[in-house]
Amino acid sequence: MDIIHPDLVPPGLELPPNYSNPACSAYEPRLPMDLWPNVISQLPFTGLEAATLVCQYFRKLAQPLLFQTLTVKPFTFNPKTMKISPQPDSYLKWISAKLSFCCTPRIAASVRTCDVGPQDLFTDKEGESEDPGRSMIDEVFEALVKFKSLTHLILAKVVLTDTNLAQLSRLSICPSLTLMHCTSSAPAPLRLAVKTLIFRNDAAEAGLDTLLLSMVNPNEIEVFSLVGDTAKMLLPQLPHNAVFSNLHTLCYDYSIATSLPLQPFLSRCHALEEIHFAPPTNVVEMPMSQMLDPSDLPSLHVYHGPDFGAHTFTTGRPIFHVRFWGCDLWGGSRSLDQLVPYWQELQLSSELESLEFSVNRISKVFLEQIFYLFPHLKALGIVVDANEYGIYGIYTREVLMDTLSSIHLPPEIEYLSIAKYYPWGHEDTPLKDLVRMKEYLAVYPALRYVAFSGEDFSWRFDPVTGQAVDAPRIIDDWRGAHL
């Protein structure tokens, strides 16, 4: 491997004067500058001299766990001044230095994620004579085969050529792919064995259908997310007669549900377990106009989407987990009366285990109705989006204590979170209130996480140990057994 020229060494970390001496081979390859902060922050040392010593001999001391993510994006040469923007050819030299380092066997074996985004630095279009980004992207794709543990590839604003698609096809295990505003210049699709695909594009560009058809193999795809302004245009491009036998998780842009019939596609997803609808920027209640046959989606047990569309997907199916989103006519959270009809429709799925939604206020009757309709509930997440200056009242510690003091939680409850959307301020919780709350929750032995936050308080603790929990946890953590 060639030694990187001295003019590529970060300022302050120059090679020693005897750079030309063959004995200095311990200094190759030089670590690219944008990786140094990640390294320095995780190595214990005192004083600049010790730091310099660590840096000079870093190749011998490198810990592969520090380099699980390879990022190929523009960065600033001088983080102190940020006045001089490097030219593209300088970036290419740094990218080559980074790839040289990451392709050494020890480091390459640790790379799990590769994040490639030329952004606005390069004009990544095939056929242009001046295109520094093209060579950089080709070099990255050529290196992918050396990362035997690669599990996730993220591409942003990249035009994939037929050569790039062929390079992906040579991977022993095709990683999870996230394609953000990408397209393809390949003349025809090259079917890949992608298991997980996240596909987003907001501009109708040539080559989008070729790229999508290359990534979606009906016999291989397991997780598929199709969002963005072009989603409803691309869905009809998928194979019409193929059965998606392994697809278990599907995420759609909400615009698809309001403009296209989904039944022809969903009827071919026999193993589908989860369906998610990504909310639009401005949530407006629009009819979904969807009709499913009773035999469709027999294994569906997760629904994340608009509350007004839940009936179509949950009725008659073994739903265990539901996450609602929706709003009133003024763009605020639903009221209690507006939510009740949707809960009653969900009651047909008596085995419901988790429920998430937002509401403009809480009350004793409100919670009692939830626990009555869903007696086997194990996880409940409520966001209280109250307007202090409107008609909904304030979600305070007193409101919470009064609400919970006289109701009974489901005996199997494991996760409980009632949090204000934007808590303003915080003050110490009176000890008597905290003791009272812990005594109240002690009668529920299954509880593993409790979070309450409002206008003047924020509690997060583990009822089993009675200790506070530093970071908030979500229902997905509970589902993944990571509480």
Automatic annotation (TrEMBL):
Domain of life: Eukaryota
Classification via InterPro entries: F-box-like_dom_sf, LRR_dom_sf
Name of this chain's protein: F-box domain-containing protein
Organism classification: Eukaryota, Fungi, Dikarya, Basidiomycota, Agaricomycotina
